[in-house]
Amino acid sequence: MFSKYDLIVVGAGHAGCEAAAAAANLGSSVLLITMNMGTIAQMSCNPAMGGVAKGQIVREVDAMGGYSGIISDKSTIQFRMLNKSKGPAMWSPRAQIDRMRFAEEWRLALERTANLDIWQDSVVGLLVKDNTVYGVKTSLGIEIESTAVVLTNGTFLNGVMHIGEKKFGGGRTAERASTGITEQLVELGMEAGRMKTGTPPRVDGRSLDYSKMEEQWGDENPGKFSYTDTEVSTDQRCCWITYTNDNVHETLKEGFEKSPMFTGRIKGLGPRYCPSIEDKINRFAERDRHQIFVEPEGWNTCEIYVNGFSTSLPEDVQFKALRLIPGFEQAKMFRPGYAIEYDFFPPTQLSLTLETKLISNLFLAGQINGTTGYEEAACQGFMAGINAHQKITDKHELIMKRSESYIGVLIDDLVTKGTEEPYRMFTSRAEHRLLLRQDNADIRLSPIGHELGLISDERLAKVTQKVTDADALVKFTKSQGIEMTDANPMLESLGSNTLNQNVKIHSLVGRPHIGLQDIIKVSKPLAEATKVLDKETIEQAEIKIKYESYFEKENEIVAKMLKMEDKEIKPDFDYNKIVSISKEAREKLFKIKPRTLGQASRISGVSPSDISVLMVYINK
Ligand SMILES: Cc1cc2nc3c(=O)[nH]c(=O)nc-3n(C[C@H](O)[C@H](O)[C@H](O)COP(=O)(O)OP(=O)(O)OC[C@H]3O[C@@H](n4cnc5c(N)ncnc54)[C@H](O)[C@@H]3O)c2cc1C
Question: Where does NAD(+) bind (predicted)?
Answer without folding.
Answer: 270-284
